[in-house]
Amino acid sequence: MILVGFMGSGKSTVAKALGERLGLDVMELDAEIYALSGKTIPEIFAEEGEEGFRNYEYRVLSSACENDGIISTGGGIITHDDSYEMIRKTDRKVIFLNATFDSLYERISDDNSRPLASQPREHVKALYDSRIERYRNAADHEVDTACGLEDTVEAILNLTR
Ligand code: S3P
């Protein structure tokens, strides 16, 4: 299973809960990028730009897809054409975790570990709007996370059973 969705949609938390329920390993791509590059996300953005970050992201996605388990992606992964195509064409179930922009923004606006969230609100909203179509095209199912963690996990288990 692969979880996609905007920053703040709860991908990591949901992936962890699903991993526990299903007895599967969880691969957190942002953490894999740190392991691969030895740099934090803000460091990569500052030193190598967003493009450098997307290249690391594609590499860790490619290797994660060689193993079983649940893959929790970073919110911008679908902006990179090769990563997007890989997710769109995979045999794995792809779940798009979504919520209203207001609630997503509330969860990310104070977080300086996310370079792309540290911009004026309307820029972050434009980013969300520009990505929504690709999340939907890549995913088998869209799940609204407004109902909370337990219900979100149940909904995903019901959809993928
Ligand atoms: C990004 C989302 C982040 C992280 C990086 C870029 C984005 O992951 O990969 O800061 O472009 O939306 P989360 O979705 O886990 O915050």
From TrEMBL:
Bound cofactor: record note: Binds 1 Mg(2+) ion per subunit.
Q: Where does Mg(2+) bind?
A: 12
List the InterPro entries. P-loop_NTPase, Shikimate/glucono_kinase, Shikimate_kinase/TSH1, Shikimate_kinase_CS
Q: In which pathway does it act?
A: Metabolic intermediate biosynthesis; chorismate biosynthesis; chorismate from D-erythrose 4-phosphate and phosphoenolpyruvate: step 5/7
This protein's source sits in the domain of life called Bacteria
- EC category: transferase
The keyword NADP is assigned to this record = no
Name any Gene Ontology BP term: aromatic amino acid family biosynthetic process
Q: Which reaction does it catalyse?
A: shikimate + ATP = 3-phosphoshikimate + ADP + H(+)
Q: Which PROSITE patterns match?
A: SHIKIMATE_KINASE
Q: Which GO terms describe its molecular function?
A: ATP binding; magnesium ion binding; shikimate kinase activity
Q: What is its EC number?
A: 2.7.1.71
Residues where ATP binds: 8-13, 114
The alphabetized UniProt keywords are:
Amino-acid biosynthesis, Aromatic amino acid biosynthesis, ATP-binding, Cytoplasm, Kinase, Magnesium, Metal-binding, Nucleotide-binding, Transferase
| CDD domains xref list | SK (cd00464)
Q: Which residues bind substrate?
A: 30, 54, 75, 131
Cell location: Cytoplasm
Cofactor(s) for this UniProt protein: Mg(2+)
GO CC aspect terms: cytosol
Any one Pfam family match given in the protein's UniProt record, by short name = SKI
Subunit structure and binding partners: Monomer.
Family, according to the entry, reads as follows: Belongs to the shikimate kinase family.
Query: What is the annotated role of this protein in its UniProt record?
Result: Catalyzes the specific phosphorylation of the 3-hydroxyl group of shikimic acid using ATP as a cosubstrate.
Record-given protein name:
Shikimate kinase
| Species this protein is from | Candidatus Salinicoccus stercoripullorum
Q: What is the lineage of its organism?
A: Bacteria, Bacillati, Bacillota, Bacilli, Bacillales
Q: Which gene encodes it?
A: aroK
